[in-house]
Amino acid sequence: MKLHEYQTKQIFRDYELNVPNGILITDASQIKDAIQTIGENCVLKCQVHAGGRGKAGGVKLVSSLKEAQSYVNDMLMTNLVTHQTDEIGVPVTSILVEELTNIKTELYIAMTLDRNNQCPTILASKAGGMEIEEVAESNPDDIIYENINPSVGLQAFQIRNLITKLDIPREATSEFTELVQSLVKIFYDIDASLLEINPLVITSDQKIVALDGKLNIEDDALFRHSDLIQLRDRGQEDQLEAEATDLGIAYVNLTGNVGCLVNGAGLAMATLDVTNQAGSSPANFLDVGGGADVEKVAKAVSIILSDPKVTKVLVNIFGGILRCDIAADGIVSAYAQTGSRLPLVVRMLGTNVDEGQQILRNSDLNVTFAETLSEAAKAISNLPG
Ligand code: GDP
Ligand code: MN
Predict the structure, then answer these.
(1) What is the residue with the minimal CA distance to atom 16 of ligand 1?
(2) How confident is the model at residue 216 (pLDDT cuts 50, 70, 90)?
(3) Contact (Cβ atoms closer than 8 angstroms) between residue 18 and residue 213
(4) C-alpha count within 13 angstroms, C-beta hemisphere, residue 268
(5) Is the CB of 52 within 6 Å of ligand 1?
(6) From CA 318, how far away is CA 157, in angstroms rounded?
(7) Is the pLDDT of residue 382 over 90?
(8) Could you list which residues have their CB under 5 Å from ion ligand 2?
(9) I need a surface site. Which of 94, 115, 314, 357 has the fewest CB within 10 A?
(10) Which one of the ligands is nearest to 211 CA?
(11) Is any ligand 1 atom within 6 A of the Cβ of residue 105?
């Protein structure tokens, strides 16, 4: 789950990090009061779950109420398209009005999981304000990594290392040290999968300020954070993905046209690979899970069918706990509910496979059966569309 910048900054405040004073507005009528408190020289920041706002016009420095009003009128209730969104963009339903910060230096600092080394890691760079992906591409040596050994935690020498490599001025070292310690604490406390401050600013009076903030929380740990769940902004999420999440279905929207219904995450990954190899392009990753009943399968198929990109459907079910007849009933039910006529290629194996195939044969669905996964992938590629 992603948090907005203003929500992230509130968490930063709770951990005594310096963040600029700000007021969140959700309606154009609120800008006047906000400016009265913050001052006419301020920065307006569209709150969306996407980076790259600065370059896309989602961050604006203004110096008068009039300028602020015109920006808010232009941006609120529109969609912001950045290089991290699709061409439709994400809705701007709130804008953060912040006091200006006197920037001397912009740094980058983040924390995430290093899956190769199986530990949390701190990434930092002197190239703050830039996209870290660009730095990684053009100047990979400019990124500093400090892996945190899970059994001993962050060590003092690692902070000293960061201070040296980032050229943190002497006057700011103790504040920087506290910041790094707090980042690690936040990361663990809220089960973050990503925590990023870009830019982390050193001001002209040598203060360390988090000018931006990004926090992603690991979905599988959300049950431990009932207070954080309320911060979810569904309007920012892919609507089909949000619907699937509510149903407990693992679903990721992709760019192709083959809707995929699979049980088991590994089988789903293999299905995507083999489908791609056969020359087709999957529209989604979908793992309906082992314990699915007819209703859940039907909902999963409905999600696939409601995706306008999908022109044909590939079913790859290995009947174990999820029996093939249950899967077939769910498929038939979803097609009946949606009235869809999209053709299917079905590969089913395992428990009650004969019953499952019979249910599909008895239906009026346009089904092609396949024995193996590679046959299924070929068959789906041979279907028109
Ligand atoms: P992002 O593009 O979505 O990552 O948005 P950021 O919050 O990082 O803002 C983009 C850029 O706007 C920053 O890198 C800064 O250069 C600039 N910016 C944001 N707030 C201020 C501010 O208070 N003062 C000044 N001078 N620049 C700011
Ligand atoms: Mn940023």
Answers:
(1) 129
(2) very high
(3) no
(4) 20
(5) yes
(6) 51
(7) yes
(8) 198, 212
(9) 115
(10) 1
(11) no
